[in-house]
Specification:
heterodimer; A: 1020 residues; alpha/beta; five-stranded parallel β-sheet; 50 strands; globular; B: 201 residues; 7 helices; 4 strands; 11% strand; flat
Chain lengths: 1020, 201
Amino acid sequence: MVASSASSTSGITKGSVLVLGGGVAGVQSALDMTELGLKVYLVEKSASIGGVMARLDKTFPTNDCSLCILAPKLVEVGRNPNIDIITNAELLKVAGTPGNFTVTIKKRPRYIDEEVCTGCGQCTLYCLKQISDDYNEKLSSTHAAHIDYSQAVPTSYHIDPKSCLRLNFETCGLCAVACQAKAIRFDQREEVVELPVGAVVLAPGFGRIKNEVLQRYGWGKFADVLTAFEHERLMCASGPTNGEIVRPSDEKHPKKIAFLQCIGSRDRTCGNDYCSSVCCMYAIKQASLAREHDPEAEITLFYMDVRTHGKGFDAARERAISENNLRIIYARPPRVEDVFDGRLLLTYATEDGEHHYEYFDMVVLSQGLESPDDAELIARVTGIDLNEYQFAATGLNAPLATSRPGIYVIGAFQGPKDIPDSVTQASGAAALCSSLLTAARGTEIVHAQYPAERDVTTEEPRIGVFVCHCGINIAGVVDVRNVRDYARGLPNVVYATDNLYSCSQDTQKHLTDIIKEHRLNRVVVSACTPRTHEPLFQATMREAGLNRSLFEMANIRDQCSWVHMHEPEEATSKARDLVRMAVAKAAHLVSLAEQLLPVTPSALVVGGGLAGLTAALAVAEQGFACTLVEKNKELGGRSLLLTADRSGNSPSEMIGGLVEKVRQHRLITTYTKATVASTSGYVGSFTSAIDTGRGSEVVNHGIIILATGGRPYRPSQYLYNQSDRVMTQLELEKRLGSSRPLSNQIKQVVMIQCVGSRGDDLAYCSRVCCGQALKNALRLKALQPSLAITIFYRDMRAYGFQEDLYRKAREQGVIFIRYTPENPPKATKDATPKSRISIKAYDSLLGEEVELAADMVVLAVGIVPEDPSTLARMLKVPVTAENFYLEAHVKLRPVDLPVDGVYVCGLAHSPKTMDETIAQAQAAAGRACQPLARGSIVPEPIVSQVDSELCIGCGACQSFCPYKAIEIYKEGKLRKARTLKASCKGCGVCAARCPTMAIDMGRFTLEGIRSQIHAFAEGE
Amino acid sequence: MTNEQYRPKILGFLCNWCCYTAADSAGVGRYQYPPNLRVIRIMCTGRLDPSFPLEALASGADGVFVGGCHPGECHYQDGNYHALVSAALVHEILARLGVSRERFLIEWASAAEGPNFVKIITAFTKQVEQLGPLGLAEKIPAESLRVSLTQAAKAARDRKLRTGLINASREMFKGGDFSRTTIAQLVQAKCEKALHEVDSL
């Protein structure tokens, strides 16, 4: 898989991109770019891709299995002919100009030939040299010849040159003898290759907090002080303890666990003055899972602020706390002490100033995210600037662009962030590369080739059943081996086995081999949900020469082990039933012909605010026509209400420029004062009617991006609307942008956070209000340094680099007082119109009620999405209880909606800052242009089929079909119905209504479903 | 079989886009519910053949659940209204055969409503559990009920009843009233003749 120096025709735009870093961001960006017609060199410094996400057990806020959702992507990268994975590699040089770079890469030897290695593991078995296992945070050991983890991509072993006996001492060499495939290459040497590429995407991820910082908390000294990464591995089924959380000192289950937050974050002493953004939430996740492992465990989390500002995070946090009885203490214990009975002592002061002592069995350090260790090196070789914390420097208006044109940055190297934000940026960077390299789209890619499909029509069913452990996600509840053995006895089953993770790359190879070896002609995978994993297994079927419709899944995780966690026997019995039903259906599956449908190569963007403008431009710059619909008279949206961004620049200038670009772009048609009156169709072929106020325009388009935005919540609290002295942060922004922002009379400003947010009227956190309050407090201070400003808050959610604003505000004398939702500040005024506002609140620091006479009260009011119901109904896309659009997958498909061809960005998705909105809008454009770039789609062949013998030509099917996908034709004198396959969506209404049962559905056949019903009934 | 040991067998037909997704999201959120339900995934509740629930009850289910998208939110526009028509026929036949109508439920949960799905299934499981095995609440021998349910499933695949359903569906869309009562009346009226045969089962 080593990339050779491809044809280098200098001066011409290249159709390839170098992605540095194979974590989830790099992987997503690589996959998106190949879909946009670009070839990708994925350069990874370690021996396998997957990054940190591959080392996580679960992901917040849903506690979904991390590897389960990542592995299909890794497999996809591994089998993608347009991605060259270059492991053990580093970037030495980037020369040239945007569109036409030459990158130099140094590739360290793996000492095992990737192309030849079969992944059998004999080398590890025979290797004499034990080394500590980095994948398991050094909590277990492996050998010098090893694979990082069993699902690793590439599925090839490698030798650690630092410890190999043969390489260092010319001895041993047993692996070479043991390797049947003859893949060991001790004579491999370092290689330096030059590659011509059009753009570079940096995704090196984050670095670890220095050991010295961890040692302050007893890590490395006391065995039972663990980092969160170590704890994560302990929780994981594939971890050093097979998923048992035990104390390293005595292998006992800890009954009292403490999580210490902000280790190496928000900490001046180690230079990391920023907030790492993810630790508050991952600690909640780990704490919940620790309780799942041991329902007796008592868990305490020590927070400075609880920063769970992401979409759905507050709800997940509240549920986790109440269900798991988690104890939250606002305190920052300065150190951990060891006491002689094997317990750990924490001393801490709560906000009321009281000191406490408490013993714990285990302490977990929630370590933050640092810039990567080689950040300076990367900056040097790529010529980009770093910020003061050694992360890539980016501007708020172009969050994914580094200081060097043609080089983009995504993921944690751009600033600490969680997986969805990283994935979003990954798709955004793909759009930017695609724009830059539009001229060369498709010039360097090849199309995947599958072997010819085996004709199985005359064969008796030979069903293979694969039962997945999913680590402990299934096997922790369901007796997987029992289910496997049971499957072996079912009719038509000729083979059944179990896998630790069915979705890993090595299992795909195994599956292909088994299909061939046992001449299977139907496959049942009993694992998670077909909604997420069917495409992966269907691709494997095709690689094994089988039609993808010969596949069926039994969902024994999402709808079994996860929902019957405390009833292992019942869950096992249910899993057996579900497998039996799937096998019964599988026997009736037949090969179905594929069809290729054309795509209208244009987009419809709904909403002309920052998100919609950015998305429309990003679509047009990739070379596709775009219709932009805005309901107001002017483009620009509510970002125009902001008068300064965090760096003090004017957003209206930036938005003005954006509007100008959109107006000028030849591929963008803009309708203002217009709405989408109706829309129908499906991915590749939508038709919408735009009500322009002067009539209706019909637009055909291949995809839709929803950027319908949000608006400020209208408060009724705190005397709003009853006094001129009370205003929202947005109204303060307006004033700050005016010529006379602050009168001399104003001495005391009070800001109140979370007005209406986090449980009052809006159940969620609006994410941006804390940052906005800090920004505006600093703007006020700059105008009038003597101004007294007090901010009442619940948790100051100054995540990421916004922590700088928080610190500056404190340094400049802004007073911060925490309030609880049970005891919020109270505002009163006297009857005079000019009355100052009296704010009374309990100050927990002083332990008493404070009263302030405020000249100005500023309310942080939160964001409400524009009502999505009309569009949601027309497009059949779901919305959350809070009226935000619900994405297809919160972690890995953050801008896709569950309906193909529909995407979301901006406030319609969830509250977010302007730079986050820009990145997300670019991401939506990156995802949305994929079907447009492909030019065609291959829908699932689950269409209806009319048996003309049985058909009586009554036309009921034709009249009920929602897609006009059935037509009546004359066969001699008889009327008969037939399906127009390209229009059929497979709903099955025609089959259910046909009076003579003449219509059947692909994969969901009458006999298939009846056999499922009968198999169900056979259950004990 | 004593009542404590009795665990009802429930078969569910869930549409891919709403209820099946809701069931998945209940799993991801680790919401727990009784382990009685077995699920058949269909793309749309519009695929639900009226014979399916009858056949399920005939072959051993104690309860049948159909789960789709909320009215007006069908991924395929109006499949769930067709499902309501099929469901009305099922309820009508159950009534005529003397089978408790509480053994069959059609309800909605959107993709975002994992907890709602759990609530529906938990309540339905309890409801069927209270009825006991098929025949118990009905005070009719299960065997004879199964025989007539099998016959009814066959009748539901027959042209006469299905033509009645086509007419009921047409009337429903014409009238634009999708309330369950109206649909039940339409189905009764349009299938009246064909249903006489069911009465004799």
